[in-house]
Amino acid sequence: MRVFVTGGSGHMGSALVPELLGAGHQVVALARSDASAGKLADAGAEVRRGDLDDLDVIAKAAADADGVIHLAYRRDLMHAGDAAGVIATNLKVIDAVGGALEGSGKPFVTPLGTLALWAGGLTGRPGTEDDILGSGPLAESENAAVALAERGVRASVIRLAPVVHSTLDTKGFTPALIGIAREKGFAAYVGDGANRWPAVHTLDAARLFRLALESTPAGSRLHAVAEEGVPFREFAEAIGRNLGLPAASIAAEDAAAHFGFLGLFAAADNPASSALTRQRLGWAPARPGLIADLGDGHYFA
């Protein structure tokens, strides 16, 4: 299969491109910079130059492919706190890909996050793949992508755990929390820290993206979740232990000042199940868990 990938040089893409190539697929990857283009070419991908604003380039590459995996997002807007700008850009890309693939039956896979379930008000139990997001900003991208199934696209969404961890993770939530702990002199959690964050190893998640591309039915929602919910206090304590710093509680009203753009999520209780994903696709995460991966030391070298 000839697969067009956006975000192929990023954290998830760096695992996905080799996963696809190793399974015998061809990869065409969007590259915004010379550095990204060089990294993708070295990995064995065909490079298509452009960025997320080049909708004509994206549509043409999608039309020429047998399937599309859209991973890229506007990291600059995310870190600036412009979630609306991130979502607006993503919706334009989804629409461009949808128009290119309409009526073809070709696969289109894109991620969201399990945190969208928490933001949508789900509480009291682990979120499942059968939970449908209602209205709201975080629901828009997922619902727009899934709706492409009605236009003859084999579209699916993978809800990623908020912690996707591995040696490839240099800009995700884990490095950000480590950086904050170093700066503040302690690893913080909110209140008693009993709130839970799901986690998954990057290589396990990459395999799920490939499986979804190859076989998942149109309109599917999948969960890239290996650990249903790691208590945030345990997460903070592992960071502190590896940095030689204490872990300590902070009040909820201090979370935004302490964690910056992560302050909104630091107290989120977001357990999520992947039982249906494992059953439907035979996906079986096999890589180390979050605390073990932190203990390996690569995040702190």
Description:
It is a single chain. The chain is an alpha/beta fold and 301 residues long. Helix content is 42%, strand content 20%. The chain has helices at 11-22, 34-43, 55-63, 75-79, 83-101, 115-119, 137-147, 173-184, 202-215, 232-243, 255-259, 275-281, 290-295; strands at 2-6, 26-31, 46-49, 67-70, 107-113, 154-160, 163-165, 187-190, 196-201, 220-224, 227-231, 247-250. The strands form three sheets. It has a seven-stranded parallel beta sheet, sandwiched between helices.
Calculate the mean pLDDT score and round it: 95
Number of strands: 12
> Which spans have pLDDT < 50 for at least 5 consecutive residues?
none
Q: What is the beta-strand fraction?
A: 15-25%
Q: Report how far the terminal alpha carbons are from each other.
A: 38 Å
Estimate percent helicity: 40-55%
Structural class by SSE content: alpha/beta
**What is the N-to-C order of secondary-structure elements (H for helix, E for strand)?**
EHEHEHEHHEHHEEHEEHEEHEHHH
Q: Output the strand order for the largest sheet.
A: 3-2-1-4-5-6-10
Largest sheet: 7 strands, parallel
The helix tally amounts to 13
Shape estimate: globular
Radius of gyration: 19 Å
